[in-house]
Microtubule associated scaffold protein 2 (Paramormyrops kingsleyae), 261 residues
Amino acid sequence: MEEKEHLRSQHQAQLEELQNHQQDKIQDMTMNHEVAMEDMENSHNSAVVALREENEAGLRELRMTHEHQRKAMEENFEQIRLSLQDQVDTLTFQNRTLRDRAKRFEEALRRSTDEQIVDALAPYQHIEEDLKSLKDVLEMKNQQIHEQEKKICELEKLQAQKNIFLEERVQVLQQQNEDLKARIDNNLALSRQLSEENANLQEHVEKESKEKKRLSRNNEELLWRLQTGEQSPRMLSPSSSPAHRGSPGATSPSWPQPLPR
C-alpha cells in the first residue's frame, strides 16, 4: 500500500508539474503576443501620424512659398508695365509735339512773305539740337526697355525653375504617401498573421487540455487497478470499471499508458 501511495503521489506530482508547465507556457505566449501586438500598433500609429504631419507641413510650406513668389512677380510685373506705359506716353507726347511743329513749319512755308518765313523758322532754330536730344532720350528709353525685357525673361526662367522644384517636391511627397500605404498594408498583413498564430495557439491549448484530461482518466484507471490488484485487462468487468462509470460513452477500457517524465 505504501508503494501504491508513493506511486500515486509521484504520478500526481508529475501531472501537476505538467499542468503548471503548460499553463505557464500558455500565459507567456499569450502575454508576449499581446505585448507584441500593442507595440506594433503604437509604432504603426506613431509612424502614420508623423508622416501625415510632415506631409501636411511640407505642402503648406510649398503653397505659402509659391503664393509669395507669385504675388512678388505680379507686383514686379505691374511696376514694369506701369514704367513702360509712362515711357510710351512720354514718347507719344513728344512725337505729337514734333508733328505739330512740323505742321506749323509747313504752313509757314506756304506763306509768301519772307517775314512770315522768318517768323515761322524762329521756333526751329535749335531743331537739330532738339532732334539730337530726342534721339538720345529715345536710345536711353530703348535701352531701359531692353533691360526690363531681359529682367522679365530672367524672372520667367526663375519661375520655371521653381515650378520644376515644386513638381519634384510634390512627387517626393506622393512617393512618401505610397510608401506609407505600403507600410500600413504590411502591418495589416502582419497583424492578420499574428491573429492566425493566436488562433493556432488556442487550438494547441485546447488539444493540450484534452490530452491532460485523457492522461488524468488513464491515471485514475491505473490507480484503480493498483488498488484492486488487477492482473489482466480481461479480469476487469465493464460494469465495475470506474472509467466506464465516469464516461458512459466509452466501449472498452484502454491499457495504462506509461507515466510522462
Notes: Residues 88 and 141 are 9 Å apart (CA to CA). Confidence is low (pLDDT under 50) at residues 231-261. Residues 2-210 form one domain.
